[in-house]
TrEMBL record:
Keywords for the protein's UniProt record, in alphabetical order: DNA recombination, DNA-binding
UniProt source species: Flavobacterium tibetense
GO molecular function annotation: DNA binding
Protein's UniProt keywords contain DNA-binding: yes
Ranges where the Tyr recombinase domain occurs: 210-398
Stored InterPro entries: Arm-DNA-bind_5 (IPR035386), DNA_brk_join_enz (IPR011010), Integrase-like_cat_sf (IPR013762), Integrase_catalytic (IPR002104), Integrase_recombinase_N (IPR010998), SAM-like_dom (IPR025269), Tyrosine_recombinase_XerCD (IPR050090)
Pfam families (UniProt xref): Arm-DNA-bind_5, Phage_int_SAM_5, Phage_integrase
Secretion signal span: none
Protein name per UniProt: Site-specific integrase
UniProt keyword DNA-binding, yes or no: yes
GO biological processes: DNA integration; DNA recombination
């Protein structure tokens, strides 16, 4: 819903007059655009947003205001015809005559980062900011526009990143963030799709190493039986890992935000922050033990786990706390794996990966695994089950070898 109105500001200026401004409201947010008109309260008709006859040149001035409103409505109509979900800043730029395709990549990055922070998505803003800093360390021109980012430039940016000790995974991460920003620029009409460089430059060519290995069911049992009385500093890490694993791979961010209000009877109800999918999970006995333990702690907040220690934290405070606690969680898991002689890289993500793989090993169909994890399509689930597929292929290859040996033996026996 977009609304445009010409109003008289309530704040008086140095001349004792009140500025006449254009106010545009979109998605419950407003922006004020000055129009270089001003008058006294007695000269303004608030009901029809016009100057009264007492205002000098009121006819010509009211005609000018009508043309201004007509121009604003045309700008909005143009955006809507092009199916562009414009921002208030983009409206002002077009209203003032600045062409969208002249908006620089640097300016667009800044605007996007500001919008993410305002909406509380501090983690996303941080990732975009890091990509911006990296890209403009490579490209020194702050006035570069999107259509100047070519496949050739991306190839050179890739070389720059590798020369600065970025792994293929690090390069892929920054390229995906840059691609995401470019897609938003296309959606908002800042650049035409015909200039899209990622049709030619393929991020998939980057070989991502360190494939995360799922823990076997036996390895998860080792963690279940881990004696925290000998290592009390690792107790929280054990609880969080098992809670994640037995709650269908609930990720760390959702565990951090989980409240006692999300628990009713023997079920956990929550909305996954990443996909907004709704979950309704049965509380298994081991999960109930963990919940009972933290209920007894009486932490003084509505949160289940002692990650966020107070209510009403700002988005930045939540992000900082998440970073600190996730770092400790992953460190604790590595120490636990070393003690238990689990020779696999282990992190918070591995709990989710292990749940998917072990559920599949138990005989569940892939679509059931997909539904249990809240994936929007089975292709995402398959990426979790790569190790499982490899195991199946290895077994089939070994069987093939054995059959080949038998066949060769039988042939030799008859050939004699």
């Amino acid at each position: 819903m977009v609304n445009v109105k010409i109003i008289l500001r309530k704040k008086v200026n140095n001349e004792g007059l009140y500025p006449v401004v254009l106010r545009i409201t979109k998605d419950r947010k407003s922006k004020i655009i000055s129009l270089n008109f001003k008058c006294s309260l007695n000269d303004w008709n608030d009901s029809n947003s016009q100057f009264k006859k007492s205002f000098h040149n009121h006819s010509q001035s009211n005609l000018a205001l009508a043309r201004i409103k007509e121009k604003a409505l045309k700008v909005i109509n143009d955006f809507q015809l092009d199916e562009i979900d414009f921002t208030l800043e983009q409206f002002e730029e077009k209203f003032r005559g600045k062409e969208l395709n002249k908006i620089s990549v640097f300016e667009f990055f800044d605007e996007l980062i500001t919008d993410l922070i305002k909406s509380g998505r501090v983690g996303n803003a941080k990732a975009i900011r890091e990509t911006k800093q990296s890209f403009f360390s490579f490209c020194k021109r702050k006035n570069i526009v999107f259509k100047e980012i070519t496949p050739s430039m991306l190839d050179k940016y890739e070389v720059f990143l590798k020369q600065n000790n970025n792994s293929d995974g690090g390069v892929a991460f920054k390229m995906r963030e840059l691609r995401s920003v470019y897609n938003k620029a296309i959606k908002q009409g800042v650049v035409q799709e015909k200039y899209y460089p990622f049709k030619i430059y393929k991020i998939s060519k980057l070989k991502i190493g360190n494939i995360k290995k799922a823990l076997t069911r036996e390895e998860v049992r080792l963690i279940e039986n881990f004696d925290v009385s000998l290592y009390p500093n690792l107790a929280e890490g054990k609880s969080l890992f098992l809670f994640s694993y037995f709650c269908r791979g609930m990720n760390f961010y959702d565990m951090m935000l989980l409240k006692w209000a999300n628990i009713s009877g023997n079920r956990i109800y929550y909305i996954r922050s990443k996909t907004k999918g709704r979950f309704n999970i049965e509380i298994l006995p081991i999960v109930q033990e963990i919940l009972d333990f933290y209920k007894m702690q009486n932490l003084g907040t509505d949160y289940v786990f002692p990650i966020l220690l107070k209510e009403n934290m700002t988005a930045t405070e939540i992000q900082n706390r998440k970073h600190k606690k996730l770092k400790k969680f992953n460190s604790d898991l590595k120490k636990m794996a070393e003690i238990l002689e689990i020779n696999k890289p282990i992190s918070s993500y591995v709990a989710r990966h292990s749940f998917a793989t072990n559920l599949k090993h138990s005989g569940a169909a892939t679509d059931i695994v997909s539904q249990s994890m809240g994936h929007k399509n089975v292709a995402i689930t398959m990426s979790y089950l790569k190790d499982f597929d490899n195991d199946i292929i290895d077994k089939e290859m070994n069987r093939l070898v054995q059959e080949s040996v038998i066949t060769h033996y039988e042939y030799s026996r008859f050939a004699v």
